[in-house]
TrEMBL record:
GO biological process: glycolipid biosynthetic process
GO cellular component: lipid droplet; mitochondrion; plasma membrane
Ranges where the Saccharopine dehydrogenase NADP binding domain occurs: 9-141
TM region positions: 274-295
Similarity remark: Belongs to the saccharopine dehydrogenase family.
Pfam families assigned: Sacchrp_dh_NADP
Repeat keyword on record: no
InterPro entries per UniProt: NAD(P)-bd_dom_sf (IPR036291), Saccharopine_DH-like_oxidrdct (IPR051276), Sacchrp_dh_NADP-bd (IPR005097)
Name by which UniProt lists this protein: Saccharopine dehydrogenase NADP binding domain-containing protein
Key words of the record: Membrane, Transmembrane, Transmembrane helix
Length: 423
């Protein structure tokens, strides 16, 4: 007997560091008044405390449902999915805890949004659950947090504004944070195991995409490990996050389903000074060495603040620190004023047009993440008919390209704007 779906959205992991902010965003944005929302987690008393704390902070009665569910209890996850139209899954690392939630949601025709930045998990979910999700006419959209809505939707935005044929995009991430602030340990932990199991990606991608894309020219070349960018006026390093892998999946979708030339993308992180840049390289080298073996991973997990030079901690940032944080992503696009007849046709001439845009907003890891996750969920509920293929597993750019998600994000604190165009 089918159970009535009594909740539009369930925020699973609402007692966790990020989950609390997703629920707070639901209250502050007014979503709680428009949609029936539940908070989910292992302990009802802790869920009730989160709700009371947010009521006290906002001065708003937060009337919501409660669902007790545990990633180690399959029946509890299935019951959550039976009662929910959509689950926002905030329980990571997703390598360890993500699939049981996806499985329950797909099994019981419940949309699923997560905030993962873990390529192995994201691509494996697409490989293993896309067909069944499409059959059930539900959407599983990963990477809907800071990883990787700003990057993926930023490339979509740039492509729409380009008015020609976009060949390549270089993305530069900058962030502002008060001295001594740190991000929460959960992000650090996900990065540890993502790096440790990076060798899984090649065989996984061969299964996911058995046919290689055609080679498009001119090929976007990776810049030197340290380079100075006149565009952002900072020293830059390659960005090791999941943005590029997520964008590449969206671009492949556009090529295969829309006959649209895929955009090449490289991402960099901008630093304030050359000393900061060198320090970041030192941390990355130490991280890579230790994450390569079990004892080293144990040390990284136990002492995140020490090994990240204060960038990550078990406590995470304070609210005062978060209020002072912000991010900006600048996208430098190059291409041609005119399109070829077919997406696989090569241009004879060199690129003759550039366009720069930027995406910026509040503290990225929790404030922006909460906005992007919640608005992604609302977009699925409200604009399913504008999403592709009638259901399936997608990265955000592919899922939301034809929806009003960018408008929704702009109405809630993020900004997308053109900087300059040059022929």
């Amino acid at each position: 007997m089918a159970v009535e779906k009594i909740f539009d959205i369930t925020i699973f992991g609402a007692t966790g560091f990020t989950g609390k902010f997703v629920f707070l965003e639901a209250v502050k944005s007014g979503a709680l008044k428009k949609y029936s929302i539940a908070v989910g987690g292992r302990n009802k008393e802790k869920l009730e405390k989160v709700v009371k704390d947010i009521e006290h902070e906002t001065g708003t009665a937060a009337k919501c449902g409660y669902i007790v569910a545990d990633v180690k209890n399959t029946e509890s996850l299935e019951e959550m999915a039976r009662q929910s139209k959509l689950v926002i899954n905030c329980v990571g690392p997703y390598r360890f805890f993500g699939e049981p939630v996806v499985n329950a949601c797909v099994k019981h025709a419940c949309h699923h949004i997560d905030i993962s930045g873990e390529p192995q998990y994201l691509e494996r979910m697409q490989l293993e659950y896309n067909a069944l999700a499409k059959e059930k006419e539900i959407y599983v959209v990963g990477a809907c947090g800071f990883d990787s809505i700003p990057a993926d939707m930023g490339v979509v935005y740039l492509s729409k504004k380009f008015e020609g044929e976009l060949n390549s995009v270089e993305v530069y991430l900058s962030s502002q944070a008060p001295k001594g602030s740190s991000f929460h340990y959960a992000t650090w932990q996900s990065a540890i195991y993502g790096f440790a199991h990076a060798n899984e990606l090649k065989p996984l991608r061969r299964k996911l995409y058995p046919e290689r894309l055609p080679e498009f020219k001119p090929k976007l070349k990776t810049r030197s490990v340290i380079h100075y960018s006149p565009l952002v006026k900072k020293y830059c390093l390659p960005f090791p996050g999941s943005d590029r892998s997520v964008v590449n999946r969206s671009q492949r979708h556009f090529f295969e389903n829309r006959r649209q030339r895929p955009v090449q993308m490289l991402a960099y992180v901008a630093q304030e000074s050359i000393l900061t840049t060198i320090g970041t390289i030192f941390v990355a080298a130490m991280f890579g060495l230790l994450a390569s073996f079990r004892f080293g991973r144990s040390l990284l997990e136990k002492y995140p603040r020490f090994f990240s030079l204060g960038a990550f901690s078990h406590e995470g940032p304070t609210r005062e620190e978060m209020d002072a944080m912000s991010f900006e992503m600048v996208f430098h696009g190059r291409g041609w004023q005119e399109k070829t007849a077919e997406p696989t046709d090569q241009h004879v001439e060199k690129p003759d047009k550039t366009l720069d845009v930027k995406v910026f907003g509040p503290e990225p890891g929790y404030y922006t993440c909460s906005i992007t996750a919640l608005q992604s969920a609302i977009t699925v509920l409200e604009e399913k008919e504008k999403m592709p293929n009638g259901g399936g597993v997608f990265p955000p750019g592919a899922a939301f390209a034809d929806t009003s998600l960018i408008d929704r994000l702009e109405a809630n604190g993020l900004h997308f704007e053109v900087i300059k165009a040059r022929l």
